Amino acid sequence: MEGALAIGAGLAVAVGALGGGIGQGIAGGKCFESIARQPEIAVQVRTLLFITLAFIETLTIYGLLIAFMLVGKIG
Amino acid sequence: MIFGASYEPLFHIGPVPVYDHVVAQWLVMIILAVVCILATRNMQVVPRGLQNFFEWVVEWCYNFFGGALGNEHAAKRYTPLLATFFLFILTSNYFGLIPGAGTIHGFVPPTSDWNITATLATIVFFAVIIVGFREQGSHYLAHFVSPYWPFLPMNILEQFARPLSLTLRLFGNIFGHEMIVAFLVLMAPFLVPMPLQALGVLTGLIQALVFTILATSYLADVVGEGH
Model pTM? Predict the structure, then answer.
């Protein structure tokens, strides 16, 4: 039972970070593309990028919270 | 550990236990109040020092959040609420950067407890409903059946999903950051946690901004087109 909890805690972060990582990579890459095309809007794009990254990160954070709860159950 | 139930309360007021995070929240409120009183105590026409800084902060909040609300009337009315959210959450997040935070009682970022982020999200939840009725009257109820009446359950569900995601986003980020720093301090206490603490400065600002921007967009939905 404890082993399953530990595996679950690891998977919660790993799978959560996988999706979030891909999403953040796409968002960041598109941001650089748009700044390279049009450097004068860099400030606005960067602000939007940070907010977008925070949204994507939230989903990974949900996984992290679940992992903390599972690790707390192992005790 | 995780939902703040297992650690000991600092002290009791009557039958009510008082935890670290609540004391930290009081400290944040006192700091904000004292700094604001100091800034506005001896106001000059040509601002200097603290007053100058706070005028810049207020103007920035008005332009940023008020601009997102859409119209002048709503910006004047609701920017104070949003700016309060922003300053309170920002100060709370930065509370974890004080040396000794986490080990000394009463020095934890209040936003790393889900009770406090849930309180903030609940304020947003009721603010949206109250602002909706205040600005649009009974016409606000039409929002719930837009675009068609079969969407009624989904619109109601959305209203309740908002505070949940607001709560968990802020709490998860700050709490996760605190836990990771704690693990690193446990493993390598010297210099190694420093880059993560520096990242915490960025995280704290961005999370305060994200919470407030979301609250702004929820309010902007219901303030209508102006008069």
Answer: 0.85
